[in-house]
Each structure stands twice: as C-alpha cells, then as structure tokens.
Amino acid sequence: MNARRQFVLGSAGLVAISALPRAFAQPSGTLKVPLVDSLSVRVLVDSSYDTPRAPSSPTVTVRRSAIFQPPNFRKVLHNEWGLALALESRLANETRNMMLDFGYTPETLMGNMEVIGVDPAKTQALIVSHGHFDHFGGLIDFLKANRSRLPRELTLYVGGEDNFCNRKTGSGPGHLTDWGVLDRREVEALNVKIVKCDEPTVLLGHAFTTGRIARQSFERVLPSTMVSYHPDANGVGCNMPAEDAKANGQFVQDQHWNEHATCYNVKGRGLVVISSCGHAGIVNTVRQAMAVSGEKDVHAVMGGFHLFPAADDYVRQVVSELKKFQPDAIIPLHCSGPNMAEALRAMMPDQYLPSTTGTEFTFAA
Questions:
Q1: Cα angle at 76 between 104 and 277, to 5 degrees?
Q2: What is the side-by-side order of every strand in the sheet holding 207-209?
Q3: Parallel, antiparallel or unpaired: strands 270-275 and 298-304
C-alpha cells in the first residue's frame, strides 16, 4: 500500500479515546476484515440528476445512467431527499450484492432501479444505516413487492436499537411532526432476520460495518431530529431505558448513537468508507473504519456527510481533516450540501468526484 497514506493516532488521541464512555469507545482490537477484488456502488436515489457526463478519475471508474430508459422515455429517474445505494463486490469467483438504505419513497426507489438496471432479485442482504425515514422509507414496500424473489433467509443489518426509535422533525417555528419509525414487527413479518451491528460486523464475507462510531474529533452532531427512547402506546419504537431515563421520558435532540458506516477493503487500494449521513462526523467515521480494520490506507470516502446545516469554516475544517487521510476520492452525496462541494473543489480538486442519482462508482486495483 502507498506509504504516503500511513495514519497513526498520536498518544494524546489514544488517551482521549480511552477516557470516552462506553457508548463512544473504540472497539478493543481489530476485526479481521475481508479483502475484495472490486466494489461497484450504484446510486439508486439521491437529490439530483444534472448531467449524463461523468467525472474522471485515475483510480475510480465512474459511469452515469441515462436519465430515462430507452425506448420508453416515460420511465425516468426521479430524485428526492434521501439515499439508496446498490453495492456489488467481487472476490475471486464470488459476487455479493447488498442494498444500503432505501430512500424516501418506494416508488422512486423501485422506479429508479428499473431505469438503472438493478435487479432486485440479486439482493442478498439489506443494510439500514440509521433510523431516518429518508433512508428506510422505501424498505417495507420494496420487500412486499420483491420478497418472493429474494433469498429465503434474508438479513437486515441495522446499526443498533436506536435505529427503531420514534423521531420527530421540525415543521415550523416551535412545531414538531412525526417522521416515521422503522417498525421491527413489519420487517420480521416479511420473514427478514434483524441483526444489530452495535459492534463491528462482517457482512456476507465481503464488507464490514463500523459499529458505534467513536466521537473523538472536533465534530459534533449538527441540527437533526428529536428522538424518543421508549416505545409509544402501540408498542412501536426502541427500548433504551438508560437513555430514556436521561431524557426524562421526553423527546430530546437526536445523537444517533447507533448510526454505522458500511466499509470495504479493496485489494491494492485500501478502504472505501460509505457514510450514509455521517451525523457522528465523517472524520470520526473514517477514523472508526481505520481503527476497526487496522487498515491505514483510505481509498475513498463517500456518502452523505450531513454538512448542509454547517457554517463554511466548519466545512473547511472537515475537508482539512479529510485531506490528512490522503484518499484517492471524496464523493459527497445526499445531505453533504453545496458548501461541501465548493470546499472540495477549492481544497481537494483532484480527489473530488461529484455524483448524481444513477452514478456508478467502481473501485478496483
């Protein structure tokens, strides 16, 4: 691997990590993570489609889907707030296909899959990054439409218990409105096994998740949803007594304790870290992936970085820290924000790869 990308945590950083509460602590030891030959990430749902012309990179192959499906121009890509990704990895003769997040609406998700040419029947596992509706909104109807075509034994990997919490979002000054909840009973009724990835977990022998992300940098959770840590009157919601006691049984600011990132270690390249929203901080997320895997080379960082609410100086600080990892590619999606794109163009122009709905990124040596 490229020696220029060696990243060593200083002793002060290690002391800081050891002092963190359990919910924030780095896992002890490292996970034996798989090494894949290649990874293809197709963006099924994102906020925009602006041009079929893909950006170029010396280390990442980038392609874009046409905006409509010939010969029927009425079948067109739709864009919406949210994110859904199709992940295909290869290791020798093995291929693994997983879906990471499911966008806001099932109509957009499944319509875009048809236009892009992603066959739902190839899906072997499902991943939800965190409990926001714009990341799991299409899941249940996707399963209802395709369950008979999917593996008999199908697993949904979630970050942890708080992925099932009830959440509210602002609907105006001083007002909150319900914002949906991932009901585990609906998932289980469709014969899907749920696995919580509070700790780092290998997925299908090809990928791994970070588990809980240690909060060890300057980053903070930027304005987000309100969350309740106990079930509602109908038994829907998460059950987190310790957090609920701290919240006095009320809705409080969401800290996304169990949001996790999905990662791959690509042979000859290094880590591809996929953060669907990155509420815990994208710098924290990358550090977590490195600590979990023991891998010091970061090939690409992609996903939602939740920087659209951030001030410009905060965004520039994030980019400065990302630059220290010396990645080959930075690919902001979804909630990263236009100020992030501007900062990357100015500070990391050779690494910045803009994306839209229908973009495919292939990582391989």
A1: 30
A2: 201-203, 207-209, 262-266, 270-275, 298-304, 329-333
A3: parallel
What is the Cα–Cα distance from 256 to 222, expressed in whole angstroms? 11
Any idea what the Cα angle at residue 282 is, between residues 169 and 304, rounded to 5°? Answer: 55
- What DSSP element (H or E) covers 135? helix 133-136
- DSSP of 190-246: TTEEEEE-SS-EEETTTEEE--SPP--SS----S--EEESS--TTS-S---HHHHHH
54-102 per-position pLDDT tens digit: 999 999 999 999 999 888 889 999 999 999 999 999 999 999 999 999 9
Question: Residue 324 CB: number of other CB atoms within 10 A?
Answer: 12
DSSP for residue 36: B
| Residue 156 half-sphere exposure toward CB, CA atoms < 13 A | 28
Q: Taking the model in full, what pTM does it have? A: 0.91
Residues linked to residue 47 through DSSP beta bridges, in sequence order: none
Q: Which helix (H) or strand (E) holds 163?
A: none
Q: Give the C-alpha separation, 44 to 101, whole Å.
A: 10
Angle, CA 180 vertex, CA 174 and CA 186 arms, to 5°: 160
At the top level of CATH, the class of 35-272+360-364 is: alpha beta
Confirm if 86 and 107 have CB atoms less than 8 A apart: no
